[in-house]
Write a structure and sequence with these properties.
The structure is a homodimer. Chain A is of the alpha+beta class. Chain A has a single domain, classed as Arc Repressor Mutant, subunit A, CATH 1.10.10.10. Chain A has helices spanning 5-16, 23-32, 39-51, 100-103, 120-127; strands spanning 21-22, 55-59, 65-69, 76-79, 85-87, 107-118. In chain A, strands 1-3-2 form a 3-stranded antiparallel beta sheet. In chain A, strand 4 (76-79) and strand 5 form a beta hairpin. In chain A, helix 1 crosses helix 3 (39-51) and helix 2 (23-32) crosses helix 3. Chain A is flat. The interface between A and B is large, with 41 and 40 residues. The structure holds manganese (II) ion (2 copies) and zinc ion (ZN) (2 copies). One manganese (II) ion is lined by residues 73, 75, 91, 93-94, 111, 113 of chain A. The site of one manganese (II) ion (MN) has 7 residues of chain B, from strand 6. Chain A binds a DNA duplex through residues 4, 6, 22-24, 37-41, 43-44, 62-65.
DNA sequence: GTTGATTTTGAGAATGGTTCTTGGTTGAAG
DNA sequence: CTTCAACCAAGAACCATTCTCAAAATCAAC
C-alpha cells in the first residue's frame, strides 16, 4: 500500500526541517503552505507514519512530543535543572542489536536514548552553595 | 543538605513499589498511608529528587510520566500499535560510557532507552490484511 | 454522469496529567 | 509574643493531545 498524498506532504515537511518538530509546529507550518491540514489530521498521520516505521518520536520532560524522520538517529544530553539540551554526534547504541531471545518476535522500528543530568553551568551554580 | 522527611517518604514509596509509578499513582498510594501528601507536593519533590540524581523518569507514548529509583536500570520494548510493553532483562548501554569530549562538562545522572516497534501479535494482524 | 456507500477530514469540545496560584500552617529566631 | 521564611494543600489554570461527529471527498457500481 503506497503512502497517501496527505501523508507524503507531512513527511516532506518533516524532512525539510532541520530539527525535530512537534505536532503543533507541523500544523502551523503546513497552514502556511499549499497543503494545509487540520490538527487532528496531523496527529492521525503522525501516528500512522510511526507505525509504518517512517517517523520516530520522543517526549520532552514537558510532555511535548517531538517528531523526526526515522533515519535521523539523534540523541541528547538534557539538564534536569535548566532544561538546556545538546545533541550527541553519534548514537551510542548504533549497531548494538538486541538478541532474538530478547526481542521475542518484536520488530523494532526505532529507539529513543536520552541522557539526563546537570550541565556545566548548573553544576557551578550548585557549587556556589 | 540531608533529605527532608517528606522527600524520604516519597522515595520510600517508590522503592517499595515493584514497578514504575506515575505522579498520580504515588499521590493515591501515599493518601492511604500514614504520610499523605498533596499532588502538587508529590510533583515538586519528584522534580527535586530527580535533580539530586535519586529518581529517574520516562514518558509513555500517552505523555504520562513514570518514576522509579535511579538505581533501577530498566528499559522496554513498546508496540506502536497496541501499546503493550515488555521489559528487557539487561541494559544495552550499561557501561558504555560517553567520552568526556561528548559530555563537555555535563554530569549524567540517568538515561532513558526505549525501543518502539511492532509486537508479534500486531505483526500477525497486519499480515492478515 | 448519477447515485449511494465508504473513507477521510477538521472545527471545536473534551480530556487529563502537570503546573501555577493562593492563602494557610509550621517552626525557628529574636 | 511577634516576625519571617519555608513549606504545604486545594483547586484553578494550562495546554498538548484525543475525541466527536457532521461535512466533504473519494470510490464503485450502474
Ligand atoms: Mn540511536
Ligand atoms: Mn540503562
Ligand atoms: Zn543546566
Ligand atoms: Zn502490538
Amino acid at each position: 500500500m503506497p503512502l497517501a498524498a496527505r501523508q507524503e506532504h507531512l513527511l516532506n515537511e518533516l524532512r525539510r526541517s532541520n530539527g525535530e518538530l512537534s505536532g503543533q509546529d507541523l500544523h502551523a507550518r503546513l497552514r502556511q503552505g499549499p497543503h494545509p491540514m487540520g490538527l487532528a489530521t496531523v496527529y492521525r498521520h503522525l501516528r500512522q507514519l510511526q507505525q509504518l516505521g517512517l517517523v520516530r518520536c520522543r517526549h520532552l520532560p514537558s510532555g511535548e512530543a517531538l517528531y523526526a524522520p526515522v533515519e535521523r538517529d539523534e540523541h541528547h544530553l538534557t539538564c534536569v535543572d535548566c532544561g538546556s539540551t545538546t545533541t550527541l554526534e553519534s548514537c551510542p547504541v548504533h549497531g548494538a542489536h538486541l538478541s532474538p531471545a530478547q526481542l521475542g518476535g518484536f520488530k523494532p522500528l526505532f529507539h529513543t536514548l536520552e541522557f539526563f543530568g546537570l550541565c556545566d553551568a548548573c553544576q557551578q551554580r550548585q557549587q556556589a552553595w
